[in-house]
Amino acid sequence: MSSGTLSTILFLLFVAVTLGITFWASRNTKTAADYYAGGRSFTGAQNGLAIGGDYMSAASFLGIAGIIALSGYDGFLYSIGFLVAWLVALLLVAELMRNSGKFTMADVLAFRMSPRPVRTAAGVSTITVSIFYLLAQMVGAGALVGLLLGITGEAAKAWTIVAVGILMIIYVVVGGMKGTTWVQIVKAVLLMSGATLVTLLVLGKFGFNLSALLGEAAAQSGKPGFLEPGLKYGTEAQGLAGKIDLISLGLALVLGTAGLPHILIRFYTVPTAKDARKSVLWGIGIIGVFYLLTLVLGFGAAALVGGKAIVAQDKAGNTAAPQLAEAIGTAIFGDLGGTILLAIIAAVAFATILAVVAGLTLASSSSFSHDLYAHVFKRGNVTEKEEVVVARISALVIGAVSIGLGILAQGQNVAFLVALAFAVAASGNLPAILYSLFWKRFNTSGAVSAIYGGLGSALILVIFSPVVSGSATALFPGADFAWFPLQNPGIVSIPLGFFAGWLGTVLSKEYNASKYAEIEVRSMTGVGMEKADGH
Amino acid sequence: MTTREHDSSVYEQVQGSEEFQELKRRFRAWTFPMTAAFLAWYLLYVVMSGWARDFMGAKVIGNINVALIFGVLQFVSTFAIAWAYSRHMEKKIDPLADKLRHEVEGGAEGTTK
After folding, report:
1. How far A306 CA lies from chain B's nearest CA (Å)?
2. ipTM above 0.90?
């Protein structure tokens, strides 16, 4: 049996189990709180695992291992930004948000503002960020299947995207937040187990001597400075702009997480703010250990597979981790061992993509239904039942749209969309959230300015950056309308977002002292917070 | 599902109380400087990755260099700050926040999970 067949079987097993859980979860999904927030009945540990499952995307598993395998140390820079970012979420956002919000990010922003403009802005931003992220994952899934299952041809890739899309729609439409959370929990356990297994085998091969592994990786790569920063980001050849770009990327990574809508809504799935705190602590533990594992996986792939063999499979190195699984399995257990390990890691990679896209679809459809439909279009005159029906329909539509876009974008270089999603979240969402929670004077004009200012500047700068035109690796390599020198807009757009929020606030006279008293007391003490469901 | 509607003056009274101001002070006096500190520590790491490459590349033990140790230290500091935050909240914030919540919500209704 080939590893492609075996990983298909394992993947189908994962699909069967998670679909079973989803249909089981759907029996208990009746109210809006069930659909949007899983009845707020998950424990801190469960939600912590789900946070890991929601956050550790294919980009961080396959992508970071690939960057380390090909460019050495620089992949680690990504991991560190992704991890430290959780402190922003833990210290400033998670608990206060759980105490004062209900279903979406906009609940917190709209608390003391004029609801329609603020919810419109937050809904637009949520859907934009989620679709970018979704698109990157969908295109990744299409590319991955060809490599892992040995399927070639555009049609096969397109069908993979359709299959991933349909599964994600089923998880979200049928299971709501409960189903999606369980898919993420199962995925987190599988991913951690798979990554730990391969890491231990690799370390074992080098007698648990990290220095020996690093030495072999550097030697095999044949690149000087492989164990040091500077081969991929801010290389000496790129000069000053490259190094500023590195800082810009670092800022977006560390400040983006606490503004990602699909992450923020996870804080609503637990009964209290203390459970939200516990979830993030669990999440930080799991994500931190995971990124330490990817360090070994990346250098292990450099040492045992080698850059040439990795590039031959995928130029960006996305198949480094599965290739490493095959190599280490073969070296220790023979051909069959290699086949089995490759199949396991390939199946885990698909599970990873599915869990992340489900989380993104849920976040964007929840925001469409709860923010735009219920509060903007219908001005709050909707029943809970109607809202959930609309949420399900919008999950279907958003899923269908992302399948279509994913097929259209097939073969395009869309990896930059993940970094862009982080930049938009850090530039628009984060200032709005932090000002809402901590700044007395903040008002509607400020919230709207922060979101549109941050979102708009990040998008405009990227459109006129070398990512979109004017370079060989651009989205449109033939055209050249780039005038912004950096690939990452964060260093400009994040301060602009905070500045726009401040300026919008001081230019408007609106200030509601009693509403500010309410959100401050509620966010700090948990008075009047949304309760867990009884069932 | 419904949030109990409080007279907004209740919130303003609580907000104006000595105890709430103390709660707020304890929270901000810890989290704000700590946020500034870990962001500065992280940015120092990123800036050194860009501009202090000779230092970052210096080998310390075998092939393990300063860059790797600095990176792992970011993990260690993240875990440590998360742990310290949780300790701080449990000791200094939770008791006061719970007390205030019970006072506002009052009686049996205040005993939430």
Report:
1. 18
2. yes
